[in-house]
Predict the structure.
Amino acid sequence: MNEPLPWFRAKRYGWGWGLPLVWQGWVVLGVFYPLVLLGAVVLLPRPGPWPFVGYCVALCVLLIGVCWLKGERPRWRWGR
């Protein structure tokens, strides 16, 4: 009856999620972007881009996992 709001709304067109609906989703994004920048500062000066690429892939997998667990169920949408 009193179901909590999803953190991320499904996109209106296409598949996936859009901007957050509640503050918890904004916190997730507010942590994600600085972690990507921190990884760029720490990992990009090393020879080769692969440590940074692996780090970003891991962060993206975590972000998708949070969106999957706390967001609306994704499906292909064609608009209203």
User: Anything to note?
Assistant: Residues 29-72 form one domain. The helical segments are 23-43, 50-70. The CA atoms of residues 43 and 52 lie 5 Å apart.
